[in-house]
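Title: Comparing notes on inverse folding

I've been comparing how different people in this forum approach sequence design from structure. To keep things fair, I'm posting one structure and asking everyone to reply with a full sequence. Here's the target:
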């Protein structure tokens, strides 16, 4: 979702593995919920604004409800979040499995749904299996809901009737306010580094479920908040481990969704676990991945409250080892546990954005680069490489076209030399710099 709205909320609810996320993906145009043949894949809710017959509403996909007293801590917290969402919803879409029939868990959830006293549509999913549907359909009518709609999220059966009934059930008068975020900030890092805790602190709301269990967040979770007069969208991502430690198809899907979130973000907050006293290999790989995607970046060292003197020393040594890239990025030392320096992230995010959008005077940039290169000649074998003109280009990140004599010989070393000149004279901390060599 890329706007804040006061659209009425339409909530998908039901037990695990009945196809809520598949239905969400069928209805949603942009945001996709993770679908995997395993119970409890969806934990945090995701949402997208949908318009049907000129009536907008916010569709929300939730984690599966589980009313067993023996449910684990994460399942119980998913349950609590769904119950809170019930109170804010305008319409409920109660999803059941038409292939496998009515269960005792469905009946328990039906009682909770009825207590919410909201317009409710009972969606009998997996209606593509006609023989099974004929056998199970009478069972679902016993739940007592007025609207019982056979649908198939996989094949699109009944989606038109569903949307028509949803719109008819919406409140007649809803005020709509839309604001686009200035930029999207993705929080990335290894599992259990504190990404979800940081997200919740920044938006001052428990949007992401926080647990000591690594891998609690499974798909990108977005939320928006204001900083001064700017609306900022934050995205919490699943933790990324080293590829050889990933032996589960679900985790592989989680990693892909996190890397996709990086590509869709404007600014990356790279979180590093300071308590380990070093920068891990996987953290470096993530950092380089975001850097290669030419994203604005901030490095955040979390869990500094757990640093002793020795680990602080070894961490500083690790930072010095990778100074060639870290010196280009703002670094903030925080503790989500004590909330130390967390609010500094807002200010740094805004400053990085402003640095990347600073104006560049073509005459000044051109003269600067050529003057600096008179003291440091560039060569390819015996051929002197010349930069004849530097032209700033309009782009989301600082981009410069270099008109040169031999563009084929301007590789990473030569372009890096020009980049260092620009960084020396302009405040580009946290900003990617893109250089394009063209023949003059």
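Reply #1:
Here's my take.
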């Amino acid at each position: 979702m890329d706007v804040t709205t006061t659209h009425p909320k339409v909530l998908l609810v039901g037990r695990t593995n009945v196809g809520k996320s598949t239905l969400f993906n069928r209805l949603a145009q942009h945001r996709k919920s993770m679908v995997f043949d395993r119970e409890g894949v969806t934990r945090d809710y995701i949402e997208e604004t949908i318009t049907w017959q000129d009536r907008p509403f916010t569709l929300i996909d939730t984690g599966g409800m589980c009313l067993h007293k023996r449910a684990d801590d994460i399942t119980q917290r998913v349950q609590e979040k769904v119950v809170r969402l019930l109170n804010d919803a305008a319409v409920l879409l109660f999803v059941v499995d038409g292939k496998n029939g009515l269960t005792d868990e469905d009946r328990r959830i039906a009682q909770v749904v009825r207590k919410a006293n909201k317009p409710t549509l009972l969606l009998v999913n997996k209606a593509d299996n006609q023989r099974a549907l004929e056998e199970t359909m009478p069972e679902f009518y016993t739940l007592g809901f007025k609207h019982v709609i056979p649908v198939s999220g996989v094949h699109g059966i009944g989606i038109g009737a569903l949307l028509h009934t949803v719109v008819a059930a919406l409140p007649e008068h809803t005020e709509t306010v839309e604001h686009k975020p200035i930029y999207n900030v993705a929080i990335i890092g290894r599992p259990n580094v504190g990404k979800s805790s940081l997200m919740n602190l920044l938006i001052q709301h428990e949007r992401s479920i926080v647990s000591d269990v690594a891998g609690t967040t499974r798909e990108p979770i977005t939320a928006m908040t204001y900083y001064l007069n700017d609306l900022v969208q934050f995205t919490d991502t699943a933790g990324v481990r080293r590829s050889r430690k990933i032996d589960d198809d679900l985790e592989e899907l989680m990693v892909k969704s996190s890397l996709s979130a990086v590509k869709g973000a404007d600014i990356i907050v790279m979180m590093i676990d300071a308590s380990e006293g070093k920068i891990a290999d996987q953290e470096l790989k993530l950092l380089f991945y975001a850097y290669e995607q030419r994203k604005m970046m901030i490095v955040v060292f979390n869990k500094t409250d757990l640093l002793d003197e020795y680990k602080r020393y070894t961490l500083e040594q690790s930072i010095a080892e990778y100074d060639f890239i870290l010196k280009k990025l703002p670094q903030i030392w925080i503790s989500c546990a004590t909330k130390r320096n967390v609010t500094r992230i807002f200010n740094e995010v805004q400053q990085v954005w402003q640095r990347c959008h600073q104006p560049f005077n073509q005459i000044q940039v051109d003269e600067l680069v050529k003057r600096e290169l008179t003291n440091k000649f560039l060569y390819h074998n015996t051929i002197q490489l010349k930069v004849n003109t530097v032209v700033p280009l309009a782009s989301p990140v600082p981009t410069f076209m270099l008109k040169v004599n031999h563009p084929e010989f301007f590789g990473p070393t030569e372009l890096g030399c020009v980049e260092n000149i620009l960084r020396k004279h302009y405040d580009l901390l946290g900003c990617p710099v893109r250089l394009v060599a063209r023949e003059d």
